[in-house]
Amino acid sequence: MFNYIRNLITGDNKRENWAALTLLIGAGIALLASLVLSIESLEIAKKPDVVLGCDLNSVVSCGGVARHWSATLAGFPNAFIGLFTLPVMLTIAVALLSRVKFPRWFMICAQIGASLGVVFAAWMLYMSLIEIGMLCPWCLVTDIGMLLIFYGLTRYNILINVITGHKLKQFVRKGYDTLVLALIIVTITMVIILKFGDQLF
User: Fold this and answer.
1) DSSP bridge partners of 135
2) Cβ(38)–Cβ(80) below 8 Å
3) How many CB atoms lie within 10 A of CB 183?
4) Helix (H, G, I), strand (E, B), or coil: what is residue 101?
5) Pair 140, 59: CB distance under 8 Å
6) Are 101 and 63 in contact (CB under 8 A)?
7) In this structure, what are the phi and psi dihedrals at residue 60, rounded to the nearest 5 degrees?
8) Which of 30, 128, 157, 173 lies most in the core, judged by the most C-beta atoms within 10 Å?
9) Are the C-beta atoms of 12 and 74 separated by less than 8 Å?
10) Tens digit of each residue's pLDDT, the chain (201 residues)
11) Residue of 16, 139, 163 whose CA lies nearest to 67
12) Cβ burial 166-177 (10 Å sphere, 16+ → b, else e)
């Protein structure tokens, strides 16, 4: 076990390993958040006026977001989509860390899935912050998880040439993609503070 961890951190494929580990962490926390949100959706379905554990005030309210039409875009709670899809990403991450080599077509399909997922998460974040005007803590955890999934899988696919391009590989090898991820997270944090700061603190 110790040798495996040492090879993960310092081995020849450490960049790929770290990308797969990021994918694993993102899928894990997003799946946990989706599970909690799914349970809360069922509670609301049983008792529409229920007060959820994360309904703290008029701004921080999982229930307020969950009762908006955008939370059931496909006719059922959006969190159920995460329960169906995130275990796939979790399995892919574990397999990659175990040095399983998937066919290129499979990794492209996984990349498309991660891309659609992060776009959907971005739309839900926009709806929550701008249209609904409330914060759902578990939704934010899901959003961060989706960002990590997209970041980790994209980085991995670029490093192993599933996504080709010399400039893209140099971009990743110099860590600029990590900088972009950090800037996105900082920007989201600043938007939340600027919009809700007076009501949060």
Assistant:
1) 60
2) yes
3) 10
4) coil
5) no
6) no
7) -90, 100
8) 30
9) no
10) 556 556 666 656 788 999 999 999 999 999 999 999 999 988 888 888 888 888 788 788 888 888 888 888 878 888 999 999 999 999 999 999 988 999 999 999 999 999 999 999 999 999 998 888 888 889 999 999 999 999 999 999 999 999 998 899 999 999 999 999 999 999 999 988 888 877 665
11) 139
12) eebeebbeeeeb
**Mapping DSSP to helix (H, G, I), strand (E, B) and coil, where does residue 135 land?**
strand
Amino acid code (one letter) for 3: N
**51-88 per-residue burial string, b: 16 or more CB within 10 A, e: under 16:** ebebbeeeebbbbbbbbeeebeeeeebbbbbbeebbee
Amino acid at 86: L
CA–CA separation, 17 and 98 (whole Å): 9
Query: Which pair of tokens denotes residue 120?
Result: 């959907």
Angle at which helices 14-46 and 2-10 pack, to 10 degrees?
110
- Tokens (6 digits) for 186: 């900082």
Q: Token pair 């908006």 is at which residue?
A: 68
Separation in Å, CA 110 to CA 103, 104, 189: 11, 10, 28
pTM: 0.91
Which DSSP string corresponds to 60-99?
Answer: B-HHHHHTSGGGGTTSS-HHHHHHHHHHHHHHHHHHHHTT
Residue type, 132: I
